[in-house]
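Ticket opened by: R.M.
Priority: normal
Category: complex prediction / small molecule

The reporter submitted a protein together with coenzyme A and asked that the result be attached to this ticket for the collaborator who will pick it up next week. Submitted input follows.
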Amino acid sequence: MEAKPVKNSQTTITELMIPSYANFGGKIHGGILLSLMDKVAYACASKHAGTYCVTVSVDKVEFLKPVEAGELVSLKASVNYVGRTSLMVGIRVESENVRTGKVVHTNSCYFTMVAKGDDNKPTQVPKLILENEEDVKRFIEALWVKEIRERVREEMDDAKSSVEVAHAKEILKNERCILSLKN
Ligand SMILES: CC(C)(COP(=O)(O)OP(=O)(O)OC[C@H]1O[C@@H](n2cnc3c(N)ncnc32)[C@H](O)[C@@H]1OP(=O)(O)O)[C@@H](O)C(=O)NCCC(=O)NCCS
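Result attached by the on-call engineer:
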């Protein structure tokens, strides 16, 4: 299987944010943006893999800067990392006000995709050729993201199994909830 450079699969989607994508306040629904991210991640990952891919996990999606109806949203995707059958796609999302030309970086996130073979099982992907410092930086960052994700998952599992309702009064004393247990 021939290795492929990062640039071969870099993909950009630009879409106009039409009014039906927006809520009553004129802001674009998060789900619309998420769907576009998934689309560009799929296109980018499949180009590199040369097969269909599925989305396995999503990291760092935040909607901190609103996107308005009438703006153009561009999603730039790049394969940052490949494992044996998985690929991590980095996506940079920018919105542009067409009248003022102002461009806002709204979010950067990571989609992990897995390549599927004709038998619908995970299949090996080509190695990634890192041709410049940016490619190398992103690959190393992806290794960190994987490691942190693994650690957080383990900690969340531990935290869930160690929740003690018996100590709720103490744990929740500064929280904005009212304990009204019936028994
Ligand atoms: C993703 C999927 C193929 C993994 O299947 P699996 O039997 O667990 O396969 P494996 O254990 O061999 O893992 C395959 C790869 O996925 C990665 N993976 C599995 N679970 C993961 C998770 N929670 N987060 C990130 N990567 C994960 C593994 O690390 C492995 O990567 P590698 O080959 O590069 O080391 C399977 O769970 C699936 O088909 N899920 C449904 C996906 C889907 O429908 N998505 C939405 C629509 S596109």
